[in-house]
């Protein structure tokens, strides 16, 4: 393997800066993740965009925040500003389980080691920089900053927190996917406009004195939220705020949002319209090495990189709008798809990787089969305020054709250096069920399923029904479980036709708002009847900027303001989660006892009587009507 010059990466050390012949740095990026120069890692994307705009960029990856802070000082004062991100995950989700236990590993650190970033990393890093360089502007972004941009409930502190701009003392926040606002900000900075004075760029947020007038040059309409202080006193007002934020986040022509925080006003400018094909291609086509920085060689592999190093991300965004998910809140509900040319160019790059053996691990996206899907009449989309295009029903204006993605799969398959290209991301199975999706005019869904199942499943296919209770699924913004059963029948039929043994792996969540203990017992019984022993399961974690988080904290649904039951205590959550593992001997007596207390001995008998060893896959005979 030929060693690449260190200057192929953005510099991580002063020595690397000097090798480039620079005597100063324009922007210093501080990240909670190790530096992997790959388009799946936000710091690399932001750094490469800045580089493409002519800026000299250096990276401080996972700085030590406990010592003399030399990591924060190693590049000195940047010419323009510091950029700060917690990394690819909210640092609290990264650190703690749903039961608030500290995790023992970190997928974004060499060797998977934990402890290389602080809790609330964005705030910690930004405060340090403001102490060291009080006159240098700080720009924060990434998922942690984006989803904490307004008053939000923090599950780990069990309290409402103000906009992250207040605690971090940062000058400016970019929310969502940052390419479009970043290019605008860089243009202004290059023209001599100080970053901390910029106010008229879409998709940024900032704090200003409450007495100051709002900028009026863009002609934006303004919507005011209940203040942070009001939210602290009134959970219903907090819940009502969320609906406004979500609706405005999903509009093409959105309003500006303001919220009083103490003696300041938070200002959130409207988002950009979703990136077009040329813009998203430009982001993915930057000159990434697609490799971790060489400094990590002796520290072990970076698990998150190992997972995606042979994968291709084909699009961004998700129009599912699931209540527990942050994807649409951060990436948007409209799909931004790359061109075939850009994707095939990346396929070629992947095949050149020194460790590539002919297998692409994922042709995917947030929901793998949403590639190129959009409104048939975009004028209707421009007026739409719905948080989901497929709940409670699939919008008649949504083009759900799977033809473009099917053809793309075939082109990747035909690449001479690709033996197999798998779909590792989860698919939205409800888009493929004709009883639910009435938009399948030319039956291309069946062609897609045939192509997917026969050519692109690596042993197992991930799908996410999430629950079996219709009441819980309505709160989740997910379709009825009956559609999963129909999908499974279709899947089994194609698998039988081709004599394939590729089990479906369904994902489920316990303790989600709207889910009672009896619903979990029913879930266990229904999935047992289908032949599953569940393994891809999780307990609900309330994360900022989700419907489910608002319900968990306030007790009401933000759209109806009506009460919704939620399991909140550790004991309640454990009682629900235990039903996933009904087949484990140590849980059987506990489950029977709980169901007897619920006066549901019928469920206890259904779930626990005549235990047999069952396969983790669905037996073929299960595909027949019972």
Automatic annotation (TrEMBL):
Q: Enumerate the residue ranges of region (Disordered).
A: 605-626
InterPro entries reported for this sequence: Elp3/MiaA/NifB-like_rSAM, Methylthiotransferase_CS, rSAM, rSAM_horseshoe, rSAM_sf, UPF0313, UPF0313_N
Q: Which cofactors are required for activity?
A: [4Fe-4S] cluster
**Cofactor remark:** Binds 1 [4Fe-4S] cluster. The cluster is coordinated with 3 cysteines and an exchangeable S-adenosyl-L-methionine.
Domain Radical SAM core, residue spans: 304-584
Judging by the UniProt lineage, the source's domain of life is Bacteria
Residue positions annotated to bind [4Fe-4S] cluster are 318, 322, 325
User: Which stretches does UniProt call biased (Basic and acidic residues)?
Assistant: 612-626
UniProt keyword annotations, A-Z = 4Fe-4S, Iron, Iron-sulfur, Metal-binding, S-adenosyl-L-methionine
SUPFAM superfamilies for the chain: Radical SAM enzymes
Q: Name one Pfam family in it.
A: Radical_SAM_N
Spell out the NCBIfam families in the cross-references: SAM_YgiQ
- Name the family: Belongs to the UPF0313 family.
Q: Which PANTHER family match?
A: UPF0313 PROTEIN YGIQ
Q: What is this protein called?
A: YgiQ family radical SAM protein
Native source species = Runella salmonicolor
